[in-house]
Structure formats: structure tokens, C-alpha cells
Design goal:
- The chain is of the alpha+beta class and 426 residues long.
- Helices cover 17% and strands 24% of the residues.
- A 5-stranded antiparallel β-sheet has the order 2-1-7-8-12. A 5-stranded mixed beta barrel has the order 3-4-10-9-6.
């Protein structure tokens, strides 16, 4: 798709000179021999560019462009000998005549309401079949538009700005213009205007559309369509003078299979079609996109997670050197560990000092009391039975004296008679 472009007087002049040289070579023929019906002594006239074609860095449908075409209008008006010319046309094809009640007003009219937005592109695959376009190629109403480049849009990378991000697409050589293939037509606006001889005549409106094709594979990430670029001036001259449906296929295939164009991000100011600053085509740096909330729940995204890495085994002997501290490190873990209920329970049942799993079993109801807190219970928390001496349990490792003292104190407190069931819940 091509819905916005930038053109300058430099690009139009460069394209005019290239086409004029190609046309002069076409008239001269191979080896410098002149073709029949041409004057060898006559210099090759340069293409006259409209003096008001100063350029527009942000032009869209409804704007006027300098467009190259063959003079005379179509194949039948001048016997097929018309030379190339550069004429002003409005972007956005209008194929029906206006009426006196609903005239087509030119963009310079104060009451202008543009109808020129609906058909600013024509698909090269169907340009010879669609009713709005099929007669234009057959009648020779083909054209070429010289631009610095064109704009395309993608979704914004900034979560706080929903406006699309514009990109400027140009040739690898920034000084070389892009010559875009198109079709044009002329209709009556429905109004009468004065002529040069003092009478009135029908006012006409000349409009054009740009041909598009499938995007080059390296540009498909921006948009799946791109304009048909005429890179070879000889092919461009053939498109302007003797277009055929077969030629449409050739230029379409060459555009999507030829050398790729370059694209760089530009300021979002150009979203406003009225903005015509000098920085329209200047490359800008995009801010790094912040991660969205959705990315945190995506299983495919690699996330940074804190993982505890054991530096060594914890020494349970108080006389030995202090155990090394646990180290926290940030590592990429594409498949983070799943903390199940069993691993959580084992972590709670581990003795904070000895490092072994501790528990005792009630001799009456066989309920297993696990964990450091329940290991000190002197009564079963289920049936209330007192804890019998020699109850089967996993012995703890040798603990520090402070830990043994706290355990002894807790057992002494339980020997005062607080052996009822309520004690088991403290």
C-alpha cells in the first residue's frame, strides 16, 4: 500500500533528465542512426517540469503531484507519436464526470471537499480487469510519479501511545528518486470556466492512482503491499509509451523480486497531513518498548527469576566455622521450577539448625506431627493423647546449645500439666 509520499524538485528533475535521455536514445536508435521520421539535427528537448513543483515532504491523496505521461492524452489522440511531458495531477483517481449539482471542485477551491481519497492505489494483479481501471492501460493512460520515498505505518512500540509508528521507505541511494508506476484519467468537473478566446468551456480534472504489488520479502514486516517501482528507465519509457497487460506483469514481478528498499522510522508528526516540516523524512531513534503485562504471563517469554544457589552444605556443629551464606543471583531460567505442595511441606519440616526432617508419631492415632514447631508438642493435636516416651520419630542432628536449651525449656513448661489438647495448638 502507498498512501503518503514525499517528493522534491530534485527528484522530479533527476527523473525528467533520465527519461529525456532515454527518450532521445529511443528516437536515435542503435549505433546513433536516426529512426525514420525524425530529424537527426534536432536536439533532444528536455522534459519541462512545472515551475510550481517545489516539492512536498508530506503529500497524500488529494494533493497535486508533477506526473510524467505521454503528451496527447492517449494512443489515439496524436497518432502514437506523442512525446513525454510532466503535468500536474491530483492523487486519487476519479473516473466519473461531475454534474452541475454535484461538481468536482479542485483542491484550490474554497468549498473543496475532496472525492480523491477512495482510489489512490490500483492493484497490479487486477488493473486490467476492474471496470474502473481496465480501459486505462488499453488506451495508454499510464504515468510515472517521481518521489523521494513513501511512508508506511506499523503498530506503535510505546504502550502509552496508540498512534502508529511511521516509516520512510526509499532507495538505497538516498539521492536516487523512486519512479512509481501509475494510471491516470481526465473527467469533467461539471462546471463551466472561461477560456482564452473569451468564451466558456468545460472544466476538467486530471487524477491518477499508483500501482501496487506484493511487498518485497524484506519489507513485508511493514506492510504486505508496496508500490510498483520502475528501476529501469527503458522499462519506464515502455510503460509510458506502449503499455500492455504483459508489461504490467513484468514490472510487478520485477518490483517485488528486485533489490530491496530501505526503511527507517520517522517522527509521528507526519501523521498530521498538514505538517510539512523539514524533518519529515529524518530518521529517529525509537525508544525501547517496555514489557507489557501480557508478557509476564506468556509461557514462551524468557524471564529473569531469582533463584537461590546453595554455596555449600550448612555445618550443624556449633564448634565448626560458620556456614557460608546463601547467594542470590539473577539468572535466566526458561523453565522456572514448580513449587509443589510436597516440596513446600518438606521445606517447612526441615530443622532450621540440623537441616534434617523431624517428626514424631502419636502412639494412639498414629498421626504424624511434622516440622520444628510440632516436634515440641507433648500431646497429639488430633486425639489429645500424651506423647509417650520412645515414640517413633526421626532423630535430629546435633543442634546448638541454644536450640537444645529452648527445646528443654519448652518441654519443662509442658510438664506442669499443660497436656490437654489445647496445648497442641500453641
Amino acid at each position: 500500500m502507498c498512501g503518503r509520499a514525499a517528493y522534491s524538485a530534485r527528484s522530479v528533475s533527476a527523473a525528467a533528465n533520465a527519461l529525456a535521455r532515454e527518450e532521445a536514445g529511443e528516437r536515435t536508435g542503435e549505433g546513433g542512426a536516426t529512426k525514420e521520421g525524425t530529424d537527426a539535427s534536432a536536439p533532444a528537448p528536455a522534459l519541462a517540469v512545472p515551475c510550481d513543483a517545489k516539492g512536498r515532504p508530506n503529500a497524500g491523496p488529494g494533493h497535486e503531484f508533477p506526473v510524467f505521461r505521454r503528451s496527447g492524452g492517449d494512443r489515439g489522440s496524436d497518432g502514437g507519436t506523442g512525446r513525454l511531458e510532466c503535468a500536474p495531477m491530483i492523487w486519487g483517481l476519479v473516473v466519473l464526470d461531475g454534474t452541475d449539482r454535484a461538481p468536482h471542485l479542485p483542491p484550490t477551491h474554497p468549498d473543496h471537499k475532496s472525492p480523491h481519497y477512495k482510489m489512490f492505489n490500483a492493484r497490479s494483479e487486477t488493473v486490467c480487469e476492474k471496470p474502473s481501471f481496465r480501459g486505462l492501460v488499453r488506451e495508454g493512460r499510464t504515468c510515472a510519479v517521481a518521489v523521494d520515498g513513501y511512508y508506511e505505518w506499523t503498530a506503535s512500540r510505546s504502550p502509552g501511545d496508540r498512534r502508529k509508528q511511521p516509516y520512510f521507505v526509499r532507495d538505497e541511494d538516498a539521492r536516487r528518486p523512486l519512479l512509481l508506476a501509475g494510471v491516470w484519467t481526465r473527467v469533467r468537473t461539471g462546471r463551466r470556466v472561461p477560456n482564452d478566446v473569451g468564451g466558456e468551456e468545460d472544466e476538467t480534472l486530471t487524477t491518477f492512482a499508483i500501482l501496487t504489488t506484493d511487498a518485497h520479502p524484506k519489507l513485508a514486516w511493514i506492510h504486505h503491499r508496496q508500490p510498483v517501482v520502475l528501476r529501469d528507465t527503458s522499462v519506464a519509457l515502455e510503460w509510458l509509451t506502449t503499455p500492455t497487460p504483459r508489461l504490467v506483469e513484468r514490472i510487478s514481478d520485477a518490483a517485488k523480486a528486485g533489490p530491496s528498499l530501505l526503511a527507517h522510522p520517522v517522527s509521528k508528526r507526519i501523521i498530521d497531513g498538514k505538517y510539512q516540516g523539514d524533518d519529515c523524512t529524518t530518521e529517529v531513534k525509537l525508544a525501547k518498548a517496555a514489557p507489557s503485562v501480557k508478557s509476564f504471563f506468556s509461557p514462551a517469554s524468557a524471564k529473569k527469576a531469582k533463584t537461590e544457589v546453595e554455596a555449600g552444605e550448612i555445618d550443624s556443629h556449633p564448634s565448626s566455622s560458620p556456614a557460608p551464606a546463601k547467594i542470590l543471583s539473577l539468572t535466566r531460567n526458561p523453565s522456572p521450577p514448580v513449587h509443589t505442595q510436597s516440596t513446600k511441606r518438606q521445606r517447612e519440616e526441615r530443622d532450621p539448625v540440623g537441616g534434617e526432617i523431624i517428626s514424631w508419631t502419636c502412639s494412639k492415632c498414629t498421626f504424624i506431627h511434622k516440622g520444628p514447631s510440632k516436634y515440641g508438642y507433648l500431646a497429639c493435636e488430633v486425639c489429645g493423647s500424651e506423647r509417650a516416651d520412645g515414640s517413633p520419630g526421626i532423630k535430629r542432628s546435633q543442634c546448638s546449645s541454644s536450640h537444645d536449651a529452648s527445646t528443654t525449656k519448652r518441654r519443662d513448661f509442658g510438664s506442669t500439666g499443660a497436656t490437654d489438647r489445647n496445648w497442641a495448638h500453641h
